[in-house]
Specification:
It is a single chain. Strand 1 (515-520) and strand 2 (523-528) form a beta hairpin. Among the domains are: 1-97, no CATH class; 516-641, no CATH class. It is mostly helical and 647 residues long. It is elongated, with a radius of gyration of 31 Å. Helix 22 (326-335) packs antiparallel against helix 23 (341-353). It has a 6-stranded mixed β-sheet, with helices on one face.
């Protein structure tokens, strides 16, 4: 009691609400008086000091009796998780011991607020229980497993849940709806879909939408999105959680276009999307790099009048950055009423990906000046920004600062950025020394970065050494063979090229097929090299011929050095002319109105000749082209690219 009064003095008493200004009407029942006063004193989501202040006020008014204290216990589950964890378990246990021990109401609220595994230890000693007691006990266990996924599949965790299940059956609570929902959720978290489905099928009449949603979530968690869709299609009633779960399931399994289709269907059917569905759909659009899809999701947010939370803002910044509209990302970022580290990281990384290294570094300095503490991801963004812009000295400085000032040990991503930075700048030997001095075993990707640099800077002998080493380290990666063959081809060592290709074939490794995506009027079009499957193929190739003719008149000459075959130059020119991004550009001329950028997403890095071709198109035809390849963004306009030919 004294602690509560002292807490009131320490934190100060906030101005009373209008309800609290009115003189309370006391009744013969102290519990009723406590309920009335707590309703006036506590906000909807109280902090711990609010509860302590309310306890002190009850004590001053003589209302902190054993019958009234359960009302304070009831307020504790509304605390934010961080505050509840900070409160440990001493305060709720003290309240419970002082309260009337005959109340199942008090017992259940104690189970809700105690951290795992205390509810399991305390449960057998509770004087009063009801079916909801098992619900809270299962929820405690499920929340623990959610927070620690590594424990979800353990035998001990499953045993504890099945033990509670058995106790519920023995107590006659197995038919309680809320207990069954908690049990289905528990088995879903554990990954035991057979037990989950058995509980679901046992009592078909004891179900509500929460029951169905729990089964949906269980199948999605287990990676069984097809079964989840069947359950979804059979639901008698769906709510926003049902739709959100299915959208999230498809995103989790990499079926991004299907996820966006489900989201659109939800909107068309008039279901109000919750923040989880919005953020998940934005993630899908970001991964695909489809700006129109992302804008559609943003429009849903605007029409619904949703508040710009930090999660939603960060997701929008990430989407616009990855879809090629860094200006829109900056606009969202600047308008956010409150920004957390994730929002700052999204903006810093977005600027870096678009080659705006100086802007990213300046934003990082502003981030630090406003009192934020950078994370590992923050430094990935900053180092990537230095790499994309050739800021060698700045990159070395931030790499050193990360460990010495902020105590962040370099991870593989940080080393990757530094190796890329040094390699691009021609400091290949420095990059090799960095790899050889790493505190953790180097990823083959780092040596792949060095190999790319050897090709770029014409270091044939070093490239051959590194390439052969890479093939031994990672024989299944097709890119290493291709890079080594490219180095041999550049040196016109065609016999060696054939040996590499034969080795690649013998090991069952094939070159990843390049593809390009282009979005037009809500439809996504996919092109492969030499693609003839598109419904408008004839028009596309006619347009491409016209573009080639105009570029030739303007002086463009194809660079065929990237073609890995010992064939005539004429055949090499033809091979380059049908690359997937060229087909996408030609189709863009047909379907994208003049004045609007032609936006393309590639799965591989753009080749040198296609990069020159695209720049030349923007100069000759006055069109703007934005390409997101496997490495970065290329904003091309008036014959120039944002990467300054540094990629």
């Amino acid at each position: 009691m004294a602690g509560a009064v002292a807490a009131s003095m320490q934190f100060g008493t906030p101005p009373p609400s209008p309800a609290a200004r009115r003189a309370p009407t006391f009744h013969a029942d102290p519990a009723a008086d406590a309920r009335q006063l707590l309703g006036a004193l506590l906000p909807p989501r109280p902090a711990l000091h609010h509860v302590l202040q309310a306890h002190a006020r009850l004590a001053v008014l003589g209302l902190a009796t054993a019958r009234a204290l359960p009302q304070l216990l009831a307020a504790l589950p509304r605390l934010p998780l961080a505050a509840a964890a900070a409160s440990s378990h001493s305060y709720p246990l003290s309240l419970f011991r002082c309260a009337s021990c005959a109340s199942a109401f008090a017992s259940n609220h104690l189970l809700r607020v105690l951290p795992h595994p205390l509810p399991l230890h305390l449960f057998p000693r509770l004087p009063r229980r009801n079916p909801h007691s098992f619900t809270f006990l299962l929820a405690s266990l499920s929340n623990h497993l959610d927070a620690d996924p590594a424990a979800a599949g353990s035998v001990s965790s499953r045993f504890m849940g099945t033990h509670v299940h058995a106790l519920a059956v023995k107590a006659g609570a197995a038919g309680d709806l809320y207990m069954r929902n908690a049990l289905i959720h528990f088995y879903g978290v554990c990954g035991d879909v057979a037990a989950m489905r058995k509980v679901f099928d046992e009592l078909p009449l004891v179900r509500d939408v929460v029951t169905w949603n729990a089964v949906l979530a269980g199948y999605v968690r287990a990676g069984m999105v097809g079964v989840a869709r069947e359950v979804f299609n059979g639901m008698p009633v769906r709510d926003e959680v049902s739709w959100s779960t299915v959208v999230g399931g498809y995103v989790k399994e990499g079926e991004l276009e299907v996820a966006l289709g489900v989201f659109k269907n939800m909107v068309v059917q008039g279901v109000k999307a919750n923040e989880a569905a919005i953020v998940t759909a934005l993630s899908a659009a970001a991964q695909l790099g489809l700006l129109e899809q992302g804008k559609f999701v943003h429009e849903v947010v605007k029409r619904a009048g949703m508040a710009m939370s930090v999660n939603l803002g960060a997701a929008l910044v990430d989407m616009y950055s990855k879809c090629g509209s860094v200006a829109a990302a900056k606009e969202v970022f600047d308008a956010m009423p409150r920004r957390d580290v994730f929002a700052w990281n999204s903006m810093i990384c977005g600027l870096a990906t678009h080659g705006l290294g100086h802007d990213a570094v300046q934003l990082f300095e502003k981030f630090v000046s406003e009192g934020f503490c950078p994370t590992s991801i923050t430094f990935v963004g900053v180092l990537n920004a230095c790499s994309r812009t050739g800021l060698v000295d700045e990159g070395r400085w931030y790499f050193k600062l990360m460990a010495e000032k902020y105590g962040i040990e370099p991870e593989m991503e940080h080393y990757g950025c530094m190796v890329d930075l040094l390699s691009r700048a021609g400091l290949v030997q420095d990059a090799i020394e960095l790899i050889e001095g790493m505190r953790i075993p180097p990823d083959p990707v780092l040596w792949g970065t060095v190999l790319s640099a050897c090709k770029r800077h014409g270091l044939v002998d070093l490239g051959i050494t590194v390439g052969n080493k890479l093939i031994e380290l990672d024989p299944a990666h097709d890119g290493h063979y291709v890079l080594l063959a490219s180095i041999y081809a550049k040196a016109k060592k065609w016999d060696e090229v054939r040996k590499v290709r034969k080795l690649m074939s013998n090991r069952g490794t094939s070159k990843s097929a390049g593809w390009s995506l282009m979005e037009a009027h809500g439809i996504v079009h996919k092109f492969l090299v030499g693609d003839m499957d598109h419904k408008d193929s004839v028009h596309i190739y006619n347009m491409l011929c016209m573009i080639d003719r105009r570029l030739a008149e303007a002086g463009y000459v194809p660079d065929v050095s990237s073609v890995l075959h010992d064939i005539g130059d004429e055949e090499k020119v033809h091979a380059i002319k049908v690359h997937s991004e060229r087909l996408a550009i030609a189709y863009g001329f047909i379907v994208v109105e003049a004045g609007s950028p032609i936006r393309i997403v590639k799965n591989l890095s753009v080749c040198g000749d296609c990069h020159e071709f695209s720049k030349m198109v923007t100069k000759v035809f006055g069109r703007e082209i934005v390409v997101r390849d496997g490495s970065r963004f290329h904003h091309m306009k008036d014959g120039k690219c944002s990467c300054h030919d540094y990629w």
